[in-house]
Write the structure tokens for this entry.
Amino acid sequence: MDTGSGNDASVGRGTPPRPVAVLLTALVALAVLSPALLARGDDFPLSPFPMFSRAVAPVGGIDTVVGLTAAGHTVRLPPEIAAGTDEVIVAGSVVTRAVAEGPGALARLCGAAASRLASDPSPLHAEVVRVEIRSETYDAIAWFKGHRSPLSVEVRAGCRVPR
């Protein structure tokens, strides 16, 4: 029964005392505002990801593994053959890491891709006689307008497909 004296023990259960609530509110506010307060160059409010607020150059590079036919046609190889995984992002990382590590890693990756290609039953790859690891540069805007040819190609490594 409430007597109006304000001494009811059930009132306020489960809520922190006022100083604790104020402190928690201040900490949460600081955590939310910290990206803006740290002046990390991000102009999107409260975002610690400057990649979303900066202009990106339309020209970019990609490291890739391709097959070449005897006639010189380029065949794009799937990630399973190029890097031994069905994960596209992982395959890209494997190729880029090999490029960064240099000739030994490139030779190993090229040989492994060529071996996987040799045992691949797909008729799409039957005419591939050579594997190349390349660094290609593309204009992303032109790509989406239908211009799919690279602006530049640097062949990092190459090897024959064992048949």
Notes: The chain has a mean pLDDT of 86. The two ends are 92 Å apart (CA to CA). The longest strand covers residues 128-139. The CA atoms of residues 83 and 119 lie 14 Å apart.
